[in-house]
Design goal:
Chitinase A, domain 3; 5-stranded antiparallel β-sheet; 3-stranded antiparallel β-sheet; 13 helices; 54% helix; 14% strand; elongated
Length: 316
Amino acid sequence: MRYLIFPFLCLFFLFTWPSCSPKTGSNQGVVIRVGDRLITVEDIERIVNITSLENGVPKKVVWSSINSLVVRIVDDSLILEYGRDRGIILSEAELGRAIQDIVKDYPESNFKETLLTRCIDYNEWKEGFRGQLLIKKIVKDHIDSLAPISYQAIKSYYQDKKENFRHPPRAKFMHIVAKNKREAETILSRLKGGEDMAELVKEQSIHSGIQGDYRMNWNTEDTLPKPLSDVIFSIKVDKLSNIVKTPYGFHIIKVVERQGAGRKELPEVMGEIENRLLSIAIERHYTAWLIELRNNYPVKVNYTLLDKIRTINEDN
């Protein structure tokens, strides 16, 4: 939804993530007030430190864009205030499942070690992750109130932008892949004898590992490896190919339909258009919601203090 200069930063850093370096004379002056939430000089410095670390950019670069960062902090604080007032919480079970989804990709204990190499305590990370998930949950709860995209809206969008939905030459095909040439020759003989390709694949895959694809999705030349693309775009429709050898095995191909370059029809692109219109609707709804939240919760940013600490840090 939001694409600011630091897309991976979330407000949960503010409350939980420690800096690897000791503080250098920072005070506890309040820089941002959002409802009952207070963000201090020390909090800002911690956010800048972790943003620099996470994005691999010098701290001076982060400080030079601090105003963009403040906008993000305010937005997330508003969302948390909204969620608190509506009793939206994140259960321990929800948090546990989300952590498991992350940790399962790491060997045993390696996740915590990875955090430690970046000066991050696991318990602090856990509480920070809880904040991230809570913000996502609050946003989803609000966005789910949006009405679905209507068929008429999709059709109208398509009619207005037909020429944006072009396709290069494309083909629908079925194919069978055998592990060796001898198997492929046997399969080809049976197909020429009139057996159905889909049924033959089902039968043979159980015993010999022969694989096939007979879903017949549209494919373009650039999405297919050579020499398959050469064969698919040269043989006659409804005719079987000779055996084609690739690094994946020995292929037998049957092109079911082929089209030259042209325009996609509405049924083909309905899902694409629906997702596009939904993204636009969510963005507009989200922006309007944040404006509404700013009207409902007091927001105050001490830009004088912010400029002072930015100047100090940029000069260091």
